[in-house]
Amino acid sequence: MKEFVLTHVVKNVSSMKEKESHFSDVEEHFGVGWSIAVMKEFVLTHVVENVSSLKENEPHFSDVEEHFGVGWKLKFYRRSDYRLSFYLFCEIPCNNGNWSISTNFKLKLLSATGKTLVKPATVVFGNSSKEKVDSWGFMSCLEWSILEKDYVVDDTVTLEAHVKIEKMIGIEKKLRDFSESAEEISDVVLIVDNQKFYVSKLFLAGQSSYFKALLCGKFQESEKSEITLTDINPIDFQNFLEILHGEPAINGNDKIEFRKKNQSVFTENTFDGILQLADMYDAKTVIRQCEKYLMQESDRTLKEKLKISAKYNLKYLRDKCLLKIETVEDIRSVVSGDLTKMNPLVLAALLQKCLSLH
């Protein structure tokens, strides 16, 4: 028997470019050249238990798994006509720009007896077309009776999706990883909309009075290894943590195809969510970075910046904005229709400016 082994060590995996495949050096064996190709592929696996108790038209989802900066999950349910529906979902929350992911994938039903059903598809997920595509699958995949007969063993069945990504556009890379790979240097898990963030209690407590009270105070949560945070978005929280951990913050680019290591967490699309969390959690470092971004890089109008400075008590931003007001027209441009809703300090400063111009 003719056999050989190819070995290739892939370095700097986190910096692999989205559109680039990697190949090992070619080795000749038995008169033929061989190499290893490293591509963007992954497999989702979900074991469905208690199949017999599944209700009609009640959707069930696997846990979300992140692959290449994108959340993926499986959806399945029993239709009222006793057929199986089976879908692959792609999650891109909080992305205001166009994005697309070109894929080839196979949805599979597996049986412990070795029987397999394969449903292939070629799909472009995204919102660059007229209609957003965030899921794709088969509404009538298989008769339920055949599923029970050929694929269900001990009231369980295994679902898989084998996904190959051909091309990605508009998907921002994370600057810092807070996934399970950071478990060794963390001592608490924060859960946001089913997404887990592995972080350090002491670090968060030193940066935020909210987390100091929550994680090191007398609350019940201080004794827990996993804590759920409600009413926030996981993408906003990822961006917030990146700023908190010292990733580059100041960059005025509004549209970026891929966010690389030296690019900013801040864009006009991400800024609001970051500042809201910084204010909510009383994270002074992040608030200062937000204020610096508005003062130096943001293209927002003077009126918008003054409104933000008043809402979040950003004194340096407010003072810088007021210094730029030099004419009556400037004053008119920043005054809102309802003066009662304006910040008293800003209104008083504008009145003083107005008097000095007459």
TrEMBL record:
<dbReference type="Pfam" id="PF00651">
    <property type="entry name" value="BTB"/>
</dbReference>
<dbReference type="InterPro" id="IPR008974">
    <property type="entry name" value="TRAF-like"/>
</dbReference>
<feature type="domain" description="MATH">
    <location>
        <begin position="41"/>
        <end position="163"/>
    </location>
</feature>
<dbReference type="InterPro" id="IPR000210">
    <property type="entry name" value="BTB/POZ_dom"/>
</dbReference>
<dbReference type="InterPro" id="IPR052664">
    <property type="entry name" value="BTB-MATH_domain_protein"/>
</dbReference>
<dbReference type="InterPro" id="IPR002083">
    <property type="entry name" value="MATH/TRAF_dom"/>
</dbReference>
<protein>
    <recommendedName>
        <fullName>BTB domain-containing protein</fullName>
    </recommendedName>
</protein>
<dbReference type="InterPro" id="IPR011333">
    <property type="entry name" value="SKP1/BTB/POZ_sf"/>
</dbReference>
<feature type="domain" description="BTB">
    <location>
        <begin position="186"/>
        <end position="245"/>
    </location>
</feature>
<dbReference type="Pfam" id="PF00917">
    <property type="entry name" value="MATH"/>
</dbReference>
